[in-house]
């Protein structure tokens, strides 16, 4: 094949070769040399190559050549599927010239395609149709389009890694089999810049052939090493005198000012720079800083309106702005012209993500891509160093295919009925098993899903003849569920001054924060909420100059750090720790690391300085082979450099079992290197030590399932899965009570099984945690459990990059006023614990001091949540069980606080997630400024929002 690749273009017909010459393609790129021959021969293939090496032409030139050479063309010959509509637009621009040159019709179809265009495509199908996975679902049901699909000979999936890791991809694998039922076998081609497990993704792409023994379809893998095409450096900017001045101008810390200055300078040194960040919050916050400095840098993320995104893309492409702060919305190859340099702000968290992002730079044939990772603290620096090394070595994470997703299965069983009206159950089962994620689907599971669909009236099940038939609900359900993306509420942000939409806000942000008068940041600008229209799902806003805006929190923005990356960061600490034990100076140890990692000495010192202090404190150093427990006051920390998912799993096990043993709630917060627990008085390291060394690893899954039944994570997922099963028309966010009822109703159904599977797959790492516990407990295990006498430098560490942006220093007057106003408008339940005869709901702002019972005159008045009727009932009860006794104590603690501190206590107790114990801690702090009281309340509310699913 290598010899054939030297003259790869000779495998193409004369018309395509002539067109190549006209376009200046005289020499094939490496992926073209290696992939064009097998693709021209009609083989299935997965092509993995860096961005800018001509992957699109690699796939499409052989396809276009074969279509052009066909004697007759009737329907759609090739489907080109991308995960983003914006990529569709780019692909059309790139392929239209080829279509005109070769006399082929190329068109695009997605959710925004006009009715006129749809009708035209149905009546006169293009030769090549660029589309999305969801649109393929819709096309399969149209009478004329189904006929057009009879002629499909090629199917190309761009950014295949993105779909392989999602339910959208699992859905697409069955859709491909549905297309094949119409067209017969066709060539399958997948394109990606980064794939960690090529064989798995190739099998995902190609599926299997049904026969006496199911066999995997043949495929080729063409992989060009991405690591050899990138040049990386990891940098922590040093703080200069100029940064001290800039910090005052930006109302932020000198460290953040140094980041802003450094990135601004990198943008100025290059013609076009993409600045990637990990969350939309950071994009908005960083973008607003550049805007205040009049830097020619725009903002791009998925919650901005389509018009706003296109506007900034065009400005960047035209050179009107020199930089673009962006999230993963720019990761998948949207055409913004030439990119000279990529800055990654903060660790990219994953190798694949860094390769995808830095690969955007040097977007020309076979050119090296240049990237800089800007880091802040020790975790950030060490993690980025590990990722940069792994990226150069091509050590990419596996994709994580959704195996046997039951809501996808339900959706596609209905899809088969949309195709055919009725189908033999065995035939449906066999077709679905051809799709790779469903190859091991048990027949009984398939039948359970069918019965669930039947009970939801989405199909008729003829048990006697084992046939499935469409019902009155089939059509409506299918068109409401073309996509497997969860149907989460989002509110349009509408600027009343310019009369146009500027983006969207997540429902959670609107509910928790967006009240009239509150100020937030979007598109790098400040907006004040004028009105929230619940019916229209619209937030009406006006622009303001106030620098104290809150940055919206969008769901799902946290990128999990894989265990292998966190382990390597732990290895840095272990290696450095041994050198510090031998009295090596920090500069010398850091210098050793500069030989192995793309860092300067200063950045390496940032990563290793806490290790030096750890050794000086005489504390054990956490590493992959050594977990360390430490505590201080009501905080216990398990230092575990095992990444988000393992730590999330370990944390849930510990919080559930320690809580069970002590009869108290245990709060938890997780990062890739430590799990921080908030425990009741009297609970310490020993309880966690016992749980880690005594819990049977084989019971991990059962413990997690029990723990998850009380967690919002499972209930939230269950509501979305239930919608995809047609078990409820639409999740309306009915709060904890509604979610509890749903959990009880669906606990013995495939809906619950799928919700649990999804949480296990996306959030947890059951097998890895089971292995880790086994190693901890084995006499000859590779992992030890050590303890420290007090909080250690590493245990007290954590991330800082981007976090400081959320509330600007000394510039949060609007936020504080919003918190104060909201608390005044909230209601509390006042209850006299002396006579127990009086209770009343009242707005906080309408309560007057002294707070007394109108019946008995006592000042022992508890201020409770307005829905805390059960606390009142428990306090009034003559005989009490242990739970009622606990609630009674809570009421008396609240009353004691109100009696001693009056309205200050009422305001603290009215806050979200603040009980008597936390309120007492907030009230007892000495403050010179009343605003600090509200800042402490806001911080506690944020803490509660982050951890409430574990309480």
TrEMBL record:
It is an enzyme of class 3 (hydrolase). Its EC number is 3.6.4.-. Residues 36-213 form the Helicase ATP-binding domain. Residues 262-405 form the Helicase C-terminal domain. Pfam families: DEAD, DEAD_assoc, Helicase_C, WHD_Lhr. The keyword Transmembrane helix does not apply. It comes from the Archaea. InterPro entries: ATP-dep_Helicase, DEAD/DEAH_box_helicase_dom, Helicase_ATP-bd, Helicase_C-like, Lhr-like, Lhr-like_DEAD/DEAH_assoc, Lhr_WH_dom, P-loop_NTPase. One of its GO terms (molecular function) is helicase activity. Keywords: ATP-binding, DNA damage, DNA repair, DNA-binding, Helicase, Hydrolase, Isomerase, Nucleotide-binding. GO terms for biological process: DNA repair. PANTHER family: ATP-DEPENDENT HELICASE LHR-RELATED, ATP-DEPENDENT HELICASE LHR-RELATED-RELATED. Belongs to the Lhr helicase family. Lhr-Core subfamily. This is ATP-dependent Lhr-like helicase. It comes from Halolamina salifodinae.
């Amino acid at each position: 094949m290598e010899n054939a690749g030297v003259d790869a273009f000779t495998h193409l017909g004369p018309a395509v070769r002539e067109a190549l010459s006209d376009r200046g393609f005289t020499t094939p790129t490496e992926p073209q040399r290696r992939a064009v021959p097998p693709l021209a021969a009609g083989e299935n293939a997965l092509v993995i190559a860096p961005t800018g090496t001509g992957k699109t032409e690699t796939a499409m030139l052989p396809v276009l050549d074969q279509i052009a050479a066909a004697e007759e063309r009737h329907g759609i010959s090739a489907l080109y599927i991308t995960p983003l509509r914006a990529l569709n637009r780019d692909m059309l621009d790139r392929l239209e010239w080829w279509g005109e040159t070769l006399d082929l019709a190329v068109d695009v179809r997605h959710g925004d395609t006009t009715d006129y265009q749809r009708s035209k495509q149905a009546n006169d199908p293009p030769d090549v149709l660029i589309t999305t996975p969801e649109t393929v679902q819709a096309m399969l049901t149209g009478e004329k389009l189904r006929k057009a699909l009879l002629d499909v000979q090629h199917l190309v999936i761009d950014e295949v890694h993105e779909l392989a890791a999602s339910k959208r991809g699992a859905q697409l694998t069955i859709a491909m089999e549905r297309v094949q039922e119409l067209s017969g076998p066709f060539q399958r081609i997948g394109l990606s810049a980064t794939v960690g497990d090529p064989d798995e993704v190739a099998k995902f792409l190609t599926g299997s052939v049904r026969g006496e023994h199911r066999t995997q379809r043949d495929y080729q893998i063409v992989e060009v090493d991405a690591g050899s095409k990138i040049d990386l450096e990891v940098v922590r900017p040093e703080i200069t005198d100029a940064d001290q001045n800039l910090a005052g101008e930006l109302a932020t810390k000198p460290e953040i000012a140094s980041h802003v200055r450094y990135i601004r300078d990198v943008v100025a040194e290059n013609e076009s720079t993409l600045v990637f960040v990990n969350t939309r919050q950071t994009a908005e916050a960083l973008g607003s800083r550049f805007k205040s400095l009049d830097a020619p840098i725009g903002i791009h993320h998925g919650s901005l309106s389509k018009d706003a995104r296109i506007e900034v893309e065009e400005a960047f492409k035209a050179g009107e702005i020199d930089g673009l702060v962006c999230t993963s919305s720019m990761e998948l190859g949207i055409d913004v012209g030439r990119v000279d340099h990529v800055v990654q702000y903060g660790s990219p968290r994953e190798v694949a993500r860094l390769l995808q992002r830095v690969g955007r730079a040097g977007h020309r044939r076979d050119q090296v891509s240049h990237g800089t990772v800007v880091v802040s603290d020790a975790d950030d620096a060490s993690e980025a160093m590990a990722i940069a090394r792994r990226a150069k070595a091509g050590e990419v994470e596996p994709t994580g295919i959704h195996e046997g997703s039951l809501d996808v299965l339900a959706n596609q069983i209905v899809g088969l009925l949309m195709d055919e009206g009725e189908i033999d159950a065995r035939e449906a089962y066999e077709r679905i098993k051809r799709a790779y994620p469903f190859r091991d689907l048990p027949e009984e599971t398939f039948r359970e899903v069918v019965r669930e669909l039947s009970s939801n009236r989405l199909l008729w099940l003829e048990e006697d003849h084992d046939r499935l038939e469409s019902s009155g609900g089939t059509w409506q359900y299918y068109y409401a569920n073309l996509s497997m993306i969860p149907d989460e509420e989002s509110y349009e942000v509408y600027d009343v001054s310019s009369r146009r939409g500027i983006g969207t806000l997540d429902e959670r942000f609107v509910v928790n924060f967006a009240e009239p008068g509150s100020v937030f940041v979007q598109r790098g600008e400040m907006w004040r909420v004028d009105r929230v229209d619940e019916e229209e799902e619209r937030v009406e806003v006006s622009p303001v100059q106030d620098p104290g805006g809150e940055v919206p929190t969008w769901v799902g923005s946290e990128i999990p750090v894989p265990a292998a990356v966190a382990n390597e960061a732990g290895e840095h600490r272990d290696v450095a720790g041994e050198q510090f034990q031998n009295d090596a100076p920090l500069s010398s140890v850091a210098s050793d690391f500069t030989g192995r990692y793309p860092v300067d000495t200063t950045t390496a010192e940032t990563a290793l300085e806490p290790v030096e202090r750890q050794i000086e404190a005489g504390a054990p150093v956490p590493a992959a082979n050594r977990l360390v427990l430490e505590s201080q006051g009501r905080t216990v920390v398990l230092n575990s450099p095992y990444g988000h998912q393992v730590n999330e799993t370990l944390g849930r096990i510990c919080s559930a079992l320690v809580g069970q043993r002590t009869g108290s709630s245990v709060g938890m917060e997780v990062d890739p290197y430590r799990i921080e627990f908030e425990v009741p008085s009297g609970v310490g390291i020993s309880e966690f030590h016992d749980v880690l060394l005594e819990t049977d690893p084989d019971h991990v899954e059962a413990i997690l399932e029990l723990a998850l039944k009380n967690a919002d994570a499972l209930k939230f997922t269950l509501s979305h899965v239930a919608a995809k099963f047609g078990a409820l028309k639409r999740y309306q966010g009915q709060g904890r009570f509604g979610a509890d009822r749903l959990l009880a109703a669906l606990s013995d159904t495939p809906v619950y099984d799928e919700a649990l599977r999804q949480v296990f797959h996306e959030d947890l790492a059951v097998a890895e945690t089971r292995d880790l516990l086994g190693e901890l407990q084995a006499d000859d295990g590779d992992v030890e459990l050590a303890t420290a006498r007090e909080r250690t430098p590493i245990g007290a560490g954590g991330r800082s990059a981007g976090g400081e942006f959320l509330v600007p220093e000394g510039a949060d007057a609007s936020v504080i006023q919003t918190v104060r106003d909201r608390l005044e408008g909230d209601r509390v339940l006042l209850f006299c614990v002396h006579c127990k005869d009086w209770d009343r709901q009242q707005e906080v702002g309408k309560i007057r001091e002294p707070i007394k019972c109108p019946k008995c005159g006592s000042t022992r008045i508890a201020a409770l949540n307005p829905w805390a009727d059960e606390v009142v009932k428990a306090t009034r009860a003559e005989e009490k069980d242990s739970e009622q006794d606990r609630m009674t104590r809570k009421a008396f603690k609240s009353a004691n606080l109100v009696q001693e501190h009056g309205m200050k206590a009422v305001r603290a107790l009215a806050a979200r997630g603040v009980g008597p114990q936390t309120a007492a801690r907030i009230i007892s702090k000495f403050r010179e400024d009343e605003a600090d009281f509200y800042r402490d309340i806001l911080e506690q509310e944020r803490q509660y929002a982050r951890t409430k699913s574990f309480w």
